[in-house]
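job 3f2a | input accepted
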Amino acid sequence: MNEPVSGTFRDPALPVEARVADLLARLTLEEKIGLLHQYQAAVPRLGVGAFRTGTEALHGLAWLGPATVFPQAIGLASTWDPDLVRQVGAATGEEVVAMHHKDPAGAGLNVWAPVVNPLRDPRWGRNEEGYSEDPWLTGVMGTAFSRGLRGDHPTLRTAPTLKHFLAYNNETDRCVTSSNLPPRVLREYELRAFRPAIEAGAAVSLMPSYNLVNGRPAMLSPLINEVVRAWTRDDLLVVSDAYAPGNLAGLQGYHDDLPQAYAAAIKAGTDSFTQDDDRPAATLGHITEALERGLLAEDDVDTAVRRALAVRLRLGEFDPATPYDGITEDIVNSAGHQALARRAATQSIVLLKNDGLLPLRAPERVAVIGPLADTLMEDWYSGTLPYAVTARAGLAERCVTAFAEGVDRVALNAAGGHVTAAEHFAGGPLAVSPAGEARATWFDLFDWGGGAYALRACANGRYVSVGDDGVLVNDQPGPNGWEVRQTFRLDERPRGTLALRHISTGRHVGLAPDGVLRLTDDPDTAAVLTLEMVESGAQAAAELAATADVAVVVLGDHPLVNGRETEDRADLALPPAQEALLRAVHAANPRTVLVLSSGYPFAVTWAQENVPAVLWSAHGGQEYGNALADVLFGDEDPGGRLTQTWYRSARELPDLFDYDIIATDSTYLYYRGTPLYPFGHGLGYTRFTYSDLRLSSAALAPDDVLHVRVTVTNVGLRPGTEVVQLYTHQRRSRVKQPLRQLRGFERVRLAPGESRTLTLSVDVADLAFWDVTRGRFVVEEAPHKVQVGASARDIRLCAHFTVAGERIPARDPYTRPLDAADNDEYDGIVLCDAARSGGDAVRGTDPGGWIAFREVDFAGGAADCLLAVSSTEGGVLTLRLDDPLYGEVIGAVSVAPSRDRYDLATVTCPLAGAAGVHDLYVVFENEGVTVSELRFTRQATGSAR
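job 3f2a | predicted structure (945 res):
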């Protein structure tokens, strides 16, 4: 309990800014520096306690023992129910507070959630952490969850942190890859996902991502101070991701040493450094040295400390009491939270296909089959399940069930005998033995896709892992931990043999002289094994399915294998053994339901063509089995809708590292192909019709609001839920526009025969796009189409309207320089940093690469072009009109080598024939040339070249 002291930081009647200023003024420089690490030091003389940033709570409180586990984030978003997501956020926030009261040091109130990276590519290893490929929907859901976490009182319940800023959708080489973000993709796609929660005051903190953006570490992005902080009047706390500060002078090599790196990070807006776990000494030393070397001023430190203190004050840390003091551990996994978990899991289930098999009608016997049928998975950011209702358990409450896991049982044979496992529960070293109990030589082989397998010893039901000494031991409950040590690849060897390769270490499994299986550094000394089939999982499952009325096959991913933090997927296919299992079961019993449980889409093309019913949900938390049974038996309508396009193949996706969704026709916004399941898709158990679409006006101004009215009718025989979705499309534009873009939606539940008229509203200002010619958003004069329907591809009604917006003029190269990054189109170039502190440029990556500026008005003629350039090798730039290969050459200039790529020099290119309106191409005849901007001078009157 804090006693209020009038006129000081302990006076709750004062504004936060005044309280922060008072406390900041009382701190010494050393004490202030001590507040810049994740583990903020206490200041005993002022009665200020220690403080820690970073409690994980993505879909429930994580890492702190049993707590309510809700569906994964993508599953929460699939409910298309922001209020439900807010309730889940509130329940999570309550459990964080309860744990904080129990263990203040272990459970901090700065929560590192939600993740609002748009799900640009379904191969991303952390796909399950995000909400949607649509930035607006991501913003809606991120705001809802954040609002729940922080609460509605002026005093924060918790301090939510948006992750991960910016353009972060690849795990492969994530700390050293640079995401290419042209201005339109940055403004229209990436930033739109982050802005709503901060602007609404729901999120009060931000975490930069590990990657670089346009050549600059995201942690050093000038966008943090210049753009993001302009969205709110409150102090926004910026926290680094774990060990990211060290990368600045380490893996990324962006700065020469750590004092330089820390100084740059603080100036760029970082307020809290997550480095070296709970050992802040090195970080504080680097900051101190930066001050001593003049790289930082005390004012810079004060700015960062002010933001850190502001959040603590808003959390009520120095108040006599807070509205949350009465929250106790009783709230954790309480009956109310269990019911909420069940409702969230139920609404998250998406019915992808149904030929009439569902809902199930009083089956006498159901075969429940698959590696996910009788288990629930925890992901890296989930809490510890307090209990687990599996698919098998949920269905067993409704009918007679029979179960088959559907995995192959195998024996591994070596020259000296069989690979044998210890039978006691604690396990023991795997060894080759010439004789032994048969069961001790059997292993269940789990295929998790991407060539990743796990082995479970039948001797004791434990999984094979690799100890720190390299010995294989059957002692784990399953794949687990940050460094998963329980997965292997089966490398083919001659004459049908194989070798085991440990995925985590990349080392092969060898056979030690004592017969024990141990990792070896030399692939040539790997143990040569033969795999003997003891029992076919697919065959056993098929035989079981043939005896049942219905087969429910539960397949999907393991959240810690082949698609997780640090590991992207290479394809979208089901694991081969799971695909074979599904086909075998369907052949034995055509009344097969495929249930997918995963954090990402699968290309289940065969299932779509052959299986009568297909459902998907994210890993659904502790109540998953009950929710699934409710939906399968029709007690609940499948309420979920996809928030991400499901493609037919990874071949339909661009390079994982290409973030330009406009140029690559990516996401539902620009994708021109036919998806397996479109964005917004989801079926129910009844049918709806749409009628009487009306617009408030057919002609609108940029500051108007468009009101769209539509009547929805349940024409089926049972109650049901529809998610009515509103899209727009701009039909004429200077630039490439999305084919469709979500602007609003509403969930509506209707009884049979019931109709309801809905009104969805769109601010015309939200139809703006980023105009690269003038560096601002613009609502263009153009015709638009309204599309209303049940998904992005199931459009039921359309209407048209026009907007009396702006006409974008031709570029005037004399009054405004042409920033190279503001090009209209490009090929063979990459966006890069013009300077370490700020600014973008372009660099040629292929000879003949180019950038284009559409409709440049040279008027009576341009005399010269002054280009800001650099190149470590030297090169030539050619300026052409209207075509990069055959267009008229109006000038060419040589670029001399420079010692540093940041040493931009101005070179003058005399021009001939640059008059009138043309498309301008700058052609990079050599790779490695960097261009920052182009300035043009007019020809003198009467002169000609």
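job 3f2a | The first strand starts at residue 39 and ends at 40.
job 3f2a | closed
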